[in-house]
């Protein structure tokens, strides 16, 4: 799949931007602050109905504007047109081939896109919520049933936690009020666990050779999925932890505590990894996701690389470009402040090289 044309209006710092684009390498260059990353975020938004960087849609509207609009035409075996319009104070309107999107589960994954940015190191450095989000976003794009189970689980968890807080507020504990929420958690937790476990098993097989190439075959890295459901079922946890949950006013065990361990030579990257190792780990993880989505969807994703050359040395940059070349994406977007650096890294490969100076 590749992006043939994009129109951006009042999105972030862009007043109006329209561009036709080719297959191959699309290199967006220019100084900091001109909106290179915002173009990639607009592409991501159209593919996912949300920003890569900001969960609050209203904050994406250019200052002083009544709203923003985005539109893109994607080429594949079946051409796809996506548009989105948001007016301040109103719900956004998302259209797929001029038809309003009613259910996100029917839309996610239609335009597969993988994005790699310097902010992705949060996957390593931040808490487990970031790593659960990585798994959830990937699985929701491929398996609608996962999105359904995840939505049910989160709503039941939120309601159960509210009820636990009400116990403390009222000074009484009618645990039968938790039963309806417990039923949903017990039903959906194994679904999340099974999908997440399988995802990491499959991603790991793709991740390991990519990281080996990035590190020059000098380092062994691995991803380990950790879940409390490996110890006990959700039903058992809810029963065993009931009194503790009441005291702490929250559900203390379950899939909402799942996490991933990122290791190099059995040592946690978060504690012992260098900047180069940390970024290489995240890049390898996202490229493994690219392969996984391609295999599952049967569509080659668009690859978005934002400031990819920061914090990795020339040797890793060279290895990275070779890996991407071997993955054979139909279209790769690259942003950088140094046009010469991009030219040096990509012109060695055959195919169109389009330079978009901003």
What's the topology here?
Elements (H helix, E strand, L loop, with lengths): L1 E10 L2 E7 L3 E6 L6 H13 L18 E9 L4 E8 L5 E4 L2 E2 L12 E4 L5 H4 L2 H15 L1 H27 L8 H36 L6 E6 L7 H7 L1 H7 L10 E6 L2 E2 H4 L2 H23 L4 E5 L7 H14 L3 E6 L2 H8 L6 E5 L1
Molecular structure report:
- With about 350 residues, the protein is of the alpha/beta class.
- The protein has a single domain (about 1-20, about 30-305), classed as RecF/RecN/SMC, N-terminal domain (Glutathione S-transferase Yfyf (Class Pi), Chain A, domain 2, Up-down Bundle).
- The protein has eleven helices and 14 strands.
- The strands form three sheets. A six-stranded antiparallel β-sheet has the order 2-1-4-5-6-7, with helices on one face. It has a five-stranded parallel β-sheet with strand order 8-12-13-3-14, sandwiched between helices. Strands 9-10-11 form a three-stranded antiparallel β-sheet.
- The model has no long low-confidence stretch (mean pLDDT about 95).
> What is the number of helices?
11
For the secondary structure, the number of strands is 14
The largest pleated sheet is described as: 6 strands, antiparallel
Helix content: 40-55%
Overall pLDDT: 93
Into which percentage range does the β-strand content fall? Answer: 15-25%
Strand arrangement within the widest β-sheet reads 2-1-4-5-6-7
Q: Can you identify the CATH superfamily? A: RecF/RecN/SMC, N-terminal domain
**What is the string of helix and strand elements?**
EEEHEEEEEHHHHEHHEEHHEHEHE
Shape: globular
CATH topology: Glutathione S-transferase Yfyf (Class Pi), Chain A, domain 2
Known CATH architecture: Up-down Bundle
Q: Any idea of the CATH class?
A: Mainly Alpha
Q: Give Rg in angstroms.
A: 22 Å
